[in-house]
């Protein structure tokens, strides 16, 4: 094993969004042996900073479900795949025509900018994007879809993200990737972008073979990564589609599932 790729929410983090002492010790033990520990998340850097110290994340991170790689210490961008503005506009107009009341937001500028439509902040919570809704402002839909996006966010005040996901697939559009992370919204990235695609690019940069990668995840947006890695590990309690994509299933995030696997592989007593 040369690289550990781990999802955060529902996987590495417990139900209080914390890194347990046992999990931190396992990550430290891996790093002490020269193993890269890479967060692979739907979050942006702002959401990583809240836990970076607890997890000792100081190197590369994959954000927006693999859309871009950023170095958490010096801010370098290894790559960034953006969804074209024309694709965003087409998608938003088609989906809004079939589902009234949708609200949209766009992640831009290396994940630092969050451009939300009027009304989005009113239904958002701090935990949704690790941003205070008061800082989200509000602009017209035209402005939201006027520029390329690292991640396009779609939500509804009442409908579940899974309903939006099914509705989007039923439109039979192309040119993008859509997924669910367990957050209260649908997430759309550039065509071909998944956690697996981002991880493959990072591993190529680091000179690491996929067979030397262990990946952990719990949600639909982790499926491709679990299939791609040499060892894919699903969290206990994950949906069947996630467990079926993995090579094995560990215990839950509240039972140090990630740590248990790392300890076993490193033969830590």
TrEMBL record:
Record's GO cellular component terms: cytosol
Pfam families: Hydrolase_3
UniProt xrefs under SUPFAM superfamilies: HAD-like
CDD domains for the chain: HAD_Pase
InterPro entries given in the database record: Cof (IPR000150), HAD-like_sf (IPR036412), HAD-SF_hydro_IIB (IPR006379), HAD_sf (IPR023214)
GO molecular function, one term: magnesium ion binding
Keywords: Hydrolase
PROSITE patterns: COF_2
Gene3D superfamilies associated with the record: 3.30.1240.10, HAD superfamily/HAD-like (3.40.50.1000)
Enzymatic class: hydrolase
Enzyme Commission number(s) from the entry: 3.1.3.23
Coiled-coil annotated residue ranges, if any: none
Name of the molecule in the record: Sugar phosphatase YidA
Protein source organism: Microbacterium foliorum
């Amino acid at each position: 094993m040369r690289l550990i790729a781990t999802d955060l929410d529902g996987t590495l983090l417990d139900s209080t969004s914390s890194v347990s002492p046992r999990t931190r010790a396992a990550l430290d033990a891996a790093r002490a042996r020269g193993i890269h520990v890479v967060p692979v998340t739907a979050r942006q850097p702002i959401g990583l900073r809240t836990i970076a110290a607890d997890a000792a994340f100081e190197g590369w991170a994959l954000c927006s479900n693999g859309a871009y790689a950023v170095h958490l210490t010096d801010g370098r961008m290894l790559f960034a795949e953006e969804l074209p503005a024309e694709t965003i506009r087409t998608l938003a107009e088609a989906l809004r025509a079939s589902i009234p009341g949708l609200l949209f937001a766009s992640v831009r500028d290396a994940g630092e900018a969050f451009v939300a439509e009027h009304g989005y902040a009113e239904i958002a919570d701090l935990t949704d994007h690790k941003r205070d809704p008061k800082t989200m402002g509000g602009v017209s839909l035209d402005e939201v879809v006027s520029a390329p996006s690292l991640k396009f966010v779609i939500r509804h005040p009442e409908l579940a993200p899974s309903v939006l996901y099914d509705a989007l697939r039923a439109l039979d559009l192309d040119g993008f990737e859509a997924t669910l992370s367990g957050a209260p919204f649908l997430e759309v990235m550039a065509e071909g972008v998944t956690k697996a695609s981002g991880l493959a690019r990072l591993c190529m940069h680091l000179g690491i073979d996929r067979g030397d990668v262990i990946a952990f995840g719990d949600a639909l947006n982790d499926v491709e990564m679990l299939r791609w890695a040499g060892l894919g590990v699903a969290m206990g309690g994950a949906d069947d589609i996630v467990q079926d994509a993995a090579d094995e299933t560990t215990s839950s995030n509240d039972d140090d599932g990630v740590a248990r696997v790392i300890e076993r592989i490193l033969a830590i007593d």
